[in-house]
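Translate sequence into structure tokens.
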Amino acid sequence: MKQTPGISQAPMQTQENDDDEIDLMALAGALVSGWKWILAAFVVAVSIGGFAALRSAPTYQAMGLLQLEQSQDALALPEGMKDLFASSGGKSEAETQMAIMESRLVLGQAVKKLDLETFAYPKRLPVLGLFPMHVGLPSFGLFPSYQWGPESISVGRLKVPDFWIGEQMPLTVTGPSSYSIKLPDGTMLNGEVGKEVTNADRSFAIAVSELDAPEKRQFIVGRRSLDAAIGMVSSRFSVTESPRGSSILRTSYQDTERVRAATILDAIANAFLEQNVERNAASAENSLDFIQGQLPQARNNVADAEQALNEYRQKQQSVDVNYETQALLERVTKIEGELSALDLKEAELKNQYTVNHPAYQALLQNRTELQAQLEQAKQATQSLPETQKDIFNLQRNLEVAQQVYTQLLNRSQELQVVRASTVGSVRIIDTAYTNPIPVAPRKGRIIALAALLGLIVGAGIVLLRRALRKGIKGAEEIEALGLPVFATVPFAAEAADLRNRKGDLPIFALEHPDAVATEALRSLRTSLHFGLLDAKTNSIQLTSASPGVGKSFTAINLAVVAAQAGQKVCVIDADMRRGYLRRFLHLPKDAPGLSDYLGHEKPLDEVIVPGPVEGMSVIVAGRYPPNPSELLMRAEFAKMLAELDNRYDLIIVDAPPALAVTDPVVIGRLVGATIAITRHLETMQGALRAVQASFEAAGSSVTGAVLNGFKASEAERYGGHYQYHYNYRYSYKSDD
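Result follows.
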């Protein structure tokens, strides 16, 4: 790209780099200066956090401890298979038992045992909740139906029809031991503590066992569904294995009442223990039934084998097996005995697992190995003589049948003992205990987090305000546009928002002559005196980019301080749309002014009125005309300025905003200087640049600017280095 001669691009790049950098000192200064916002956010956040912590009921946590003992198999296995079955399976025993403990079966038993389907609680204040009770706020008799203290109720029995499940019924205390309850169908029933009350068709019944509340207090009573009650208990109950692999289960339950939390947790543990005992007893019963059904057949098998062996021996005249055959017989008998045990185990596993279960697959694998060993042993018998083969087979059948029968008898006796003394594989180590310190709400933690959040939000508000304030932060930004800053006028709360006030307005320089802002206006008077030495006339125009920046305030007060210095000053309100200089002089709306002179209705001398200070004159706007721009373009306006230039040392023209109308551009060609009034942190730098462009397009220019409404604290907040405001005062007093 071809660079334009004489224009250096380095400064622009440097400025962009400066804009991209983060000024940490400026941010720190902004946070320090905005301490009021941060403190306000902190106080609000802590108040909300404290209110949230005090409005909720405290939640207590009950803890318990259980131990899982090693469960015994229902059928004894050979020693070689115990390790194989012990290592099979997916989840650990603890995970399985925890899932059972959290099941609907166990939780449902606890819900039914404690009748947790019934609910009854005091009616609490909307939004406030328990806040009045926690802070000890007296009720003063207000809202007597809501809870203000530690009221309680205990419902011994509640029966409702199915279509009233989930309905809330208000119960109102009517006396020391009496109450009334409103049913969902609108029926009112009266009852007493300790007595059951029913409706006409006896589909509803309630018995209140305890009631501790003042008269007119209300409780919400009802009955939830079993599924809802189980869901409520499940959401508050938890069980974990701690430490992992120890078979120690830690249980916990949270509730708003200490005693009820421990009661419910104990009920869950007892229900879990009962189902475990029942399951083991049922497993022993099933195994016993199966084995007793196999005993008659096993007994017959032994008798048949003995008879066959005796008949063969009688036929062959007492043939015995030799040592080698006896050893082979013992080996085959042992293998077939193990196979028989596997058959019994398989029959039992079919009732518990599918074929794909790891335990079932391990059994099948072990059976395949034993069958292979049996085939090898049988092949070894092929080399025996025929007589030895026959006696071997008969002897083998007898010993196997005897072994199976003996195993069944032993196991039957063991299972009878197990069935009679089943204790389960779960042991309760610690019953439920509720810590007196609630686990929620953690008031200290909530308030601490709220305080931290308040500080963050407060800092965010301060930094956001800083980021959103794109207005001029200091004189440097104005001077960067090539405009000299004649004065920086500090903010004065007494003169803020004058336009929106009603009635007559005070002149600040007269009301507060020793104020810093008044001293700044005197500095502006001095700057203009030297700045206008080469001007063609004694007139200056005050304009702005937008309304509400203090242009009229500057005009009237500058005229006062100039007149006090001995100058003859005339102020012209050239804003014939919204001008309000007349209010500083206590003149009515129809007071003649500039519009009347330009419209040939009044001569010049009749529209000039004396000001509040000697040597000061004022020409107000007059009646608002429909064509102010056209009036200013008439020759009479230029003629008037020329006439006033001969009479006064300084002429101040209060013009409307330059970006709103063309009036200031018209006036700018006739006056000696145009001063742009800017407001600190409100007037945009781009808007001031647009004002310059509008005057330059008309062949004139903006002479300089005034930074009005300067706030030192805001300057530190948004930049941290604009601190050149007036911080001194002069006062002359006599020695007396």
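Note: The radius of gyration is 51 Å.
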